[in-house]
Design a protein that fits this description.
Two copies of one chain form a homodimer.
Chain A lengths: L1 E2 L1 H11 L5 E5 L12 E2 L9 E2 L3 E4 L6 E7 L13 E5 L11 E4 L4 E3 L2 E3 L9 E2 L10 E3 L9 H7 L4 E5 L4 E6 L3 E2 L10 E2 L2 H12 L4 E6 L3 H11 L5 E5 L9 H8 L3 E7 L6 E7 L2 E6 L3 H20 L9 E5 L3 E2 L6 E10 L2 E6 L16 E5 L5 E2 L4 E6 L1
Parallel strand pairs in A: 1-19, 6-7, 14-17, 14-18, 15-16, 18-21, 22-25
Antiparallel strand pairs in A: 2-13, 3-12, 4-11, 5-7, 5-8, 6-10, 9-10, 19-20, 20-21, 22-28, 23-27, 24-25, 24-26, 26-28
Helix pairs in contact in A: 1-6, 3-6, 4-5
Chain lengths: 392, 392
């Protein structure tokens, strides 16, 4: 069952159920997805605060009497009278009836009197609720807790936060020709790469998986892996075994295991073999074995699908426009995904073809940081042409 | 000692020493930095491999006798004679004298004979070294092991990899007004946010730190923190205590502790207080206490500095050009760093001012994903104007 890329995405997104939620300690929330709108619980700031180290006062007097000091976390005078002034540290509360704060470096103290230059009303005072009012939405459900949002949760005084539960993902890799890192090389064999593509790419999005290991190309072994994993995981991802080969048992086995096949090929290059199947709340994703095909399908289809499963509000890939810095070729009438290195040249995102686009090649991924999406009308692009890209 | 941003960067980069190196298991190398050029140890592929599941043969015969099969990890016939054909699985070795592989779906088998359509010489055969030759550089020293590079190391059969040692970084936070997550709110106090800015931003770059805790605003406590940390860490980073305030002891203490002050303010807004000092191989970085000022200095100065300390070949921030989607204001004659949300609109990176640029505000960082670098000539920008940005 070969489907268009649009149909494949439609199917995948339709089977990605809304995640359950849980409340966790905010310290453990990095890379989790918000399952609640984060509402500010009080005004920010909730009292008038000084923007500088300086003298809070009522303008209009020639000089002032010191009435102590107040700082962030240090309680000082709550009000002042006439020509009193309170030294306020940055972030400290400004006495209720003070009208301005003068920078300490602009003031002088002589014989116990403080001389303050002319200030405007409100100068250097941060007003109540000027940043956010109580009840404002600081961050929306479906946001990923990273970058600035993670510390903002602390800033807002959150101790706990409601996040989306993570689906349980199980992985296995098939192939008699697979060696593991550290094993001695044998001619004609290949090293397990796809497990580490998942490790590398999953960490970027806060995904995790359990590795069920490496399964030999026999019907019995693949069946045993399926039996062990079905019911235990929400999503099972396999690598290899889904082509036309005689030893490609994955396709055969998951067919006989009662899974409903949703599609088994999609119209993209590289990596048209991609299977999706469903059985009682378990989604099976069969990925092609070639690392380049595996990576392409992962980025184009599976990461957006998993982002939806993890509760990301924005789950589809962001497509940026890049200017080609050289030639890249695609076949007219086919949707090609070309590997490229994108870098900023004079502030402009500029894409360079990876040199090889063969499905069997992978080493260029050491340099590749983008996939060019070249639709059926594209053909060959030259330097200066624009292309759509997904940045890794 | 106020210095320009250029001078501050020059000083920071000059004190960032080249990291030592260590050899580690490749499985532990995610987000580490290569301390070696990665050289391919053999040809890729190192024997002719089939690009498809199909029949390897010498073109020119009407039909063929089957001479067995071979697959990835399955040894088959090493050569064929005349009208023999070997079924080869994708990735399997092609017999030495076979000249082409026909796709299985294009062939027919009748009465024990295999009928193969016309093939070009070399069709569906991946040649020796066509991907990479032995001795090629697959990845350069100073590259970060993430994205595609991490799995490429496995693909290349690496068991160990030489990486840069990480500097030991110690952190402390100052301020009597600091509450920790989960503590009950007290009016006028603020929650520890800067520690979590570091946690959030450090993880993006593979940096780590030890947290020495929260130090009260007293000379004794700050001095004790310094004594405890000096010598133990390569880099000490503090938050707060470096302004003009009476309780800003950090500046005073590290002065008396024998550190050479390199600068204490830089010409940027927000967050001009930023201290750098040096003593016997230990670098001290004193960051401003306001979270927005802390974040800005971290992104603009400290992350590039740390990337250099960690051995990144490319350590300076990448500046991208964004098109403003609305107004943003800066003061002429000053270097302003404005918070913005950048998103792709019709393929174009479009920047939107965060609404507030006040140093005392931080909640907008829940949405902000870029800092606009607005130099002294900029003034006010309107929709359609271009601006330089660093993406978080």
């Amino acid at each position: 069952m070969k489907v268009s890329r649009h149909k494949a995405k439609e199917i995948l997104y339709s089977i990605a159920g809304a995640p359950e939620t849980e409340e966790i300690d905010v310290r453990d929330s990095y890379m989790r997805v918000l399952a609640e709108d984060v509402i500010t619980e009080r005004d920010y700031p909730d009292c008038r605060k000084s923007a500088v180290d300086g003298y809070a006062h009522i303008p209009g007097y020639e000089s002032y009497t010191s009435a102590g000091e107040t700082g962030a976390g240090r309680k000082g005078a709550e009000s002042i009278s006439g020509d009193e002034t309170v030294f306020v540290m940055t972030g400290g509360n400004v006495p209720d009836n003070a009208l301005a704060v003068a920078r300490v470096e602009d003031c002088t103290v002589e014989n116990g009197r403080v001389f303050i230059p002319e200030c405007k009303k409100g100068e250097n005072i941060n007003n109540i609720a000027e940043e956010n009012a109580k009840g404002d939405v600081a961050a929306a459900k479906g946001s990923v807790i990273k970058d600035g949002l993670f510390p903002v949760l602390f800033y807002l005084g959150r101790g706990k936060v409601k996040v989306c539960k993570r689906p349980k993902i199980g992985i296995f890799v098939t192939g008699d020709e697979i060696l593991e890192a550290g094993e001695e090389y044998r001619k004609g064999f290949v090293y397990n790469t796809n497990k580490y593509i998942l490790e590398s790419m999953f960490r970027k999005y806060g995904f995790d998986f359990e590795y069920a290991g490496h399964v030999k190309d026999s019907k019995e072994d693949v069946e045993a892996a399926f039996d062990m994993m079905s019911g235990k995981y929400d999503i099972i991802i396999s690598s290899g075994g889904i082509s036309m080969g005689k030893y490609d048992y994955v396709k055969e086995v998951f067919n006989t295991c009662g899974y409903e096949i949703l599609f088994s090929r999609t119209a993209i290059k590289p990596g048209s073999p991609l299977m999706a199947a469903k059985k009682e709340g378990c989604t099976f994703i069969g990925m092609p074995g070639y690392p380049a095909a595996f990576m392409t399908n992962l980025v184009f289809y599976i990461i957006p699908f998993l982002r939806k499963c993890y509760g990301y509000a924005v789950f589809e890939n962001e497509e940026v426009s890049v200017t080609m810095g050289g030639k890249t070729s695609s076949k007219e009438g086919r949707f090609d995904i070309n590997r490229a290195a994108v870098r900023t040249e004079n502030g402009v995102l500029t894409g360079f073809d990876a040199g090889t686009q063969k499905t069997s090649h992978f080493i260029s991924f050491a340099q590749v940081n983008a996939l060019l999406l070249l639709d059926e009308e594209t053909g060959t692009l030259s330097a200066g042409d624009r292309a759509k890209a997904v940045l890794l």
